[in-house]
Structure formats: C-alpha cells, structure tokens
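Private note to self, pasted from the team thread so I don't lose it. Backbone tokens:
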C-alpha cells in the first residue's frame, strides 16, 4: 500500500473513528495502526480474508464520506499551515515597525 494513502486514511481515522462501528474501528486499527496484513486481521477477528478486505473498503468509504461532508481534516490542515506562517512571521519580526507589518499579515491570514 502506498504511504500517501496510508497517511491520509490515518488522518481520517483521527477525525472520524467514532463514526465507524466498534468492529469496523477494530479492523481499521489492526490494518492501519498496527500494520497487520489482511490475513492477520482476518485471523484476529474471526472472519475471512475477503471479509476483512470488504470491511476495510467499506470503512474507507465511510471515512471519505464524512470528510466530504464535514471537511474537518481539510480545515485542520489549512489552520496548521496558517499557524506555521504566523510562527514564521513572528520569528522574522525584529523591529517594532516590522512587528506591525507582521501583525497585519497575521490578521490577513486569520481573516
């Protein structure tokens, strides 16, 4: 599995894990957090390998649907980037005049 997909699913799990059933959450945590194979997930949960795969695909669709509707991960990423810009702006402010310009930049970012 590609790292980018694994990372994006892990982020969605951080936000939307409670939207899954206990069983789906358990399977997703085994597969994504514990990095178990489909066979290992199946063995631990008492289902077939195909059942584990189906549960993972269904859970991924639920997570994607939640993000499409609520956009919590997207908003978090945007706010994190803004905070990083604010911190960078404050680090570069050395004079009172420069600080005022940086404050205006921060206000615009938060805008």
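Design output:
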């Amino acid at each position: 599995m590609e790292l980018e997909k694994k990372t994006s699913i892990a982020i969605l799990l951080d936000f939307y894990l409670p939207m899954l059933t206990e069983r789906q959450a358990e399977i997703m945590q085994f597969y994504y957090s514990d990095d178990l194979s489909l066979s290992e997930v199946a063995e631990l949960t008492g289902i077939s390998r195909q059942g584990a795969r189906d549960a993972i695909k269904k859970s991924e669709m639920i997570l994607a649907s939640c993000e499409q509707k609520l956009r919590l991960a997207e908003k978090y990423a945007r706010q994190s980037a803004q905070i990083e810009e604010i911190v960078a702006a404050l680090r570069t402010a050395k004079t009172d005049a420069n600080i005022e310009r940086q404050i205006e930049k921060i206000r615009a970012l938060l805008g």
